[in-house]
Amino acid sequence: MVNMLVRFIRYIITGEWMKEAFFIKQSKLVFLIVLGVLLLISNDYACQKKMKQIDFLQDSLKHERATAVVLAMKLTDARRYSQIETLLKEKGIELASPQQPAFEIHK
User: Fold this and answer.
1) H helices present in the chain, as ranges
2) Distance from the CA of 91 to the CA of which of 4, 34, 37, 100 falls in 20 to 30 A?
């Protein structure tokens, strides 16, 4: 029993099983199967890499949107009439508000 097991292991390790007629006839099929498996593994790796990149870009987009909202709030706040008056006083610029409302000149 042990002798038979040793012979089988030697048969596999030395590659004598590759000389069998069945394997030689089916070698093209085995090659195509191995090629298909390699293509599947490669495709899976590429897909995982793209998914990681998509996740990174989505996180980056969320961060940039939050930054844009904060900047828009600051800009809106800076455009208020009271803020403009305060900034003019801080800078020492002497501008007064018009006493008369604006009017249009019609042709």
Assistant:
1) 2-14, 21-25, 27-78, 81-91
2) 100
Task: Compute the distance between CA of residue 18 and CA of residue 43 in angstroms, rounded to an integer.
Answer: 29
CA distance 95 to 100: 15
Tokens (6 digits) for 22: 């069945």
Residues 17 and 11 sit within 8 Å (Cβ to Cβ): yes
Rg from Cα positions in the chain? 39
Q: Which amino acid is at 17?
A: W
| CA angle (40, 28, 22) in 5-degree steps | 125
Distance of CA 10 to the CA centre of its chain: 50
